[in-house]
Amino acid sequence: MFSFTRAVTAKRDYYEVLSVERGAATADIKRAYRKLAMQHHPDRNPGNKEAEERFKEAAEAFEVLSDDDKRKLYDQYGHEGPSRAGFSGFQGTDEIFSRFGDLFGDLFGNLGGFAGGRRGGPQRGQDLKTRVVIPFSEAVVGIEREVTIPRRDPCEECDGSGAAAGTKPQACSTCNGQGQVIHRQGFFTVQTACPRCHGEGQIIASPCRGCSGTGVVQKETTLKLSIPAGVDDGQTLRIPGRGMAGSKGGPAGNLYVVVAVEADPRFQRDEFDIHSKVTISMVQAALGCTVKAASLHGDQDLEIEAGTQPGHIIVRKGKGIPVLGARGHGDHHVHVEVTVPSKLSGEQEEILRELAESLGEAVSEKKGFFSSLRKRKR
Questions:
Q1: φ and ψ at residue 69, rounded to 5 degrees
Q2: Percent of the chain with pLDDT over 70
């Protein structure tokens, strides 16, 4: 279905791929990518597998280094880092053209064919994007969720051809299947969409009734998603081939699922570590105690050592969030808060004064109401 990481041969450093320094500005990264994309573009290197791989490699490097979040993850974790933001590379050149269509329009507008072939041929379907909301507890352990999305699927009656059963589309005789016609006006040659097939390059004489000749039908599709343990708020899952169906037999687009993780007031997340707090009294801090503390797996006993100071942090190794796409867990940092009573009974005040005297500590001579009351009664 989908993954945050993929098994690949050793990848080159993205900065090396684009020949830029690690501190390069976004404009320099874009400029470097434009140069490589122009050099290795498939339309300029037909049938050249090595150029195609270089083209995909450059696009992958640009996708990561031009995005601040993905670049930060890459700088910290290497090639595994961007997968934590939902990016695991491009499956093919069609996906790259879909992702950077505007950029390629500027670069290769006169080359033609970059966005899925000539008009009238197979066209890749549009990508879809949806959002799913899960509680923090489910993000920690992973969960399966169903999502319903509107999409266009290939028509079953005509297998996506758009032609009625027993027939098939015919090449347009006006443009000979090219989708374009040429007009000569004096010394000038003007190329326009074919008026008969409207640029499709083919004619459907008997349209399919199920899809009215479009080859696709609109429907709602329910998908079951396996959301992995450790996913963070805002991360995106990419599910190949679950976007809009392509036309004329073209490949389907991808489905991008943005995961929104609800906050849990007990925990603060930091990468795969979590932070929480536990509150104890000054007497418990001085003498030590066992208290119930929140954990990712319910309340658990936590040992507080005698002499624990306010602000002390107890680190529970490996008790944090599962590391996404790898083994192991983060840590659980428990911050200890120590409370001081704002009111004391006379007896309690006398006990503390005796303790202060035994420790040789100077304290206020002002006595509380209850202490004064007891002395008057004596």
A1: -70, -45
A2: 82
Q: Tens digits of per-residue pLDDT, 263-278? A: 999 999 998 999 999 9
Tokens coding 262:
């609800």
Q: What pLDDT, in 10s, does the model give residues 276-329?
A: 999 999 999 999 999 999 999 999 999 999 999 999 999 999 999 998 877 899
Q: Which residues pair with 277 in a beta bridge?
A: 335
**164 CB neighbour count, 10 Å cutoff:** 17
Which tokens go with 235?
A: 């991360």
- Cα dist from 66 to 7, 69, 75, 107, 251, whole Å: 23, 9, 13, 18, 27
State the residue range of the domain holding 75. 1-119
DSSP class of residue 163? B
Number of other residues whose CB lies within 10 A of the CB of residue 177: 19
Asked if residue 182 is part of any domain, the answer here is: no
Distance CA(4)–CA(97), nearest Å, equals: 21
Nearest to 128 by CA among 149, 102, 147, 146: 149
- Both 329 and 275 in a single domain? yes
Burial of 143 (0-12, 13-18, 19+ CB in 10 A): middle
